[in-house]
Amino acid sequence: MSENRGELLAGAVVLATALGFLVWAGKGSGLGASSGSYPLHAAFRSVEGITVGTDVRMAGVKIGTVTDVKLNPKTFFADTTVSLRDDVVLPDDSAILVSSEGLMGGAFIEIIPGGSPDNLAAGDEILDTQGAVSMISLMMKFAGGSSEETPK
C-alpha cells in the first residue's frame, strides 16, 4: 500500500511540474492573460523575417507583439498590426523599423520613440517606417561595387 502511495505522489509531482511548464510557456508566448494592450498599424516596404508573434521592442525590452501581417494589394506594402502594452504610451512622431539581432539572428520590430507632446491612440498608424534590409543585397553591392563608379 505504501508503495502505491509513493507512486501516486511521484505521479502528482510530475503532473504539477508539467502543468507549471505549460502555464509558463503560455504566458511567454502571449497566450496567457495579459495586463491589457492596444493595436497600432504600420505599412512597411519589406517585412522579411517578421511573422505573427514576432517581438516588438523598445530599447531592447519587449513591449508587444506583431498580431497581423498582410499584403496591401493597392500599395504593395506589408500592412502590419502590432499590439503594445497599455503602459507604453508613444509620441505620434515615433518611428517603427524592422531590425535584426545580428548577422545570423532573427528579426524583430523596433520602435524608436519621438519627441512630440501628442501621443498615438489605439488604432492609429505609425507613419515613419523602415523595412527590412536584405543582407544579400548589401553584400552584393559591397562585392560588386556600384554601377555608377564604372567608367564609360
Described by strand count, sense and barrel closure, the largest sheet is:
7 strands, mixed
Report low-confidence residues grouped into runs of 5 or more.
none
- The number of strands is 7
The number of helices is 2
Domain tally? 2
Task: Report the portion of residues in β strands.
Answer: 25-35%
CATH architecture classification name of the largest domain: Beta Barrel
- Using the coordinates shown, work out and report the CATH topology of the largest domain: Elongation Factor Tu (Ef-tu), domain 3
Strand order of the largest sheet: 1-4-3-2-6-5-7
Determine Rg (CA atoms, Å). Answer: 22 Å
**CATH domain class of the largest domain:** Mainly Beta
Fraction in helix: 10-25%
Q: What's the N-to-C terminus distance? A: 94 Å
Give the overall silhouette: extended
Average pLDDT number: 84
User: Which structural category do the helix and sheet elements fall into?
Assistant: alpha/beta
Order of helices and strands: HEEEEEEEH
